[in-house]
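Journal club side-thread
Mid-discussion, someone asked how the predicted structure for our own chain would compare to the paper's figures. Pasting it here so we can look after the session.
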Amino acid sequence: MINDLTFKILFCLVLDVIMLLSYRWFLFWIPMITVAGLWVPVAYDLTRETRYLQTYMEMVLVAFFFFKWVRERKDKTSAGLFGFGLLAFPALLNAEGHFAFTLWISLLILGGVGVYHFFLENMEWILARDVVDWTTLTWSVAGLWTKAYYARQLDQPWMYQRGGGIWASNHVGGILLLLLPLVKKPWISAIAIVFLLSNFSLGIYICLTITLLGWMAIGRIGKGSWGILVTACIAGALFIGIIPNNELAVSYLQERSGMHYAQTDSLTKGLTARFTTDTRWEIQQAAITMAEQSNLVGVGLGGFVWHLEQAGYPPVYSNAHNIYLTLLDEGGVLFLLAFLGLLCYSLNLARKTNKTVFVSLLSWAVYGFWSGEIYEAASIATAGDYYNFLLILAFLGYSAKASKKIVIDQDHALVPAPV
């Protein structure tokens, strides 16, 4: 008889084979990889330093895509993505005790160039089979289930549990903000928006508002989409619990809005108090100190929590709750500048190619001031956010090539080919 740990590792190996055989569904497998990576560490209470071992499935698939990219024809964007990945490696000099963890995430980021190439080459197949829709639904349903699971464990009302997502609501929130513009089915969009609303995150609310208002401004919101908004608002109201005489709901809303903390009945004063006294400011001050101590080289991807003590803060946060400060701290100033260049390039390409995606990318960039990670290091080592960003970049590249092809075909139709 094999023990429980051996069984789970063997199960993951079998799942790995299934994923390799159905690699075109890679986007859909990302949340599954996250769950599998958490399964063993959570059950056996392994340290963060060893948890990267449980995400080997992700590395196998990413390595598979990377070596395919090396052998096949490359586009110009690939060179920039490869350079971006390489810029994470100098921070290994400061990784110290978490070298293996940092190296693992750095390799995942470097291998992202292969993931981008895979998305670009298979975009037509991915769109035809609604892979984005089913992936969005998986993230949303898993998030809602996690809320219910944690609520039961902590004996809390499930609608007020903020542990949504797969052990990280901010992590999944950023992913859904990226995927929403490519979702085709209105009912899946509605479920995703309801899940985002149920996280009770001020950052998500602001960015979701930016997304929806931006879509309305460019004419994306049609009759069918209004149904999504109405459904989401009704469901959101039920989650929030705006019901007369619901003391628990009122108390929770006052806590989330800062009214309890500021000891005021004014929503404006409460929100102002939240902004000015938010613990994120303390985390971000620690991030600035950390950047100075690393001489702007970085402490290694995923190494934020290990270096908090050196900055004089308790090691309880896995990132700076700000994507830009986190990348500066962990990857260094060159890594941050490269990411900003990549983001600006993507925004410019979206502005020319697809206004709907442009709005969502802009919203995601704003969300970066609250969270918006490109890799997850709180529970496991995964670059799932980065892969979803690469999907959007590949979609824009595919759309640009498709539009050029249409122009060429039209020209060929108008101008007879030489005899």
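Post-session note: Residues 4-158+278-402 form one domain.
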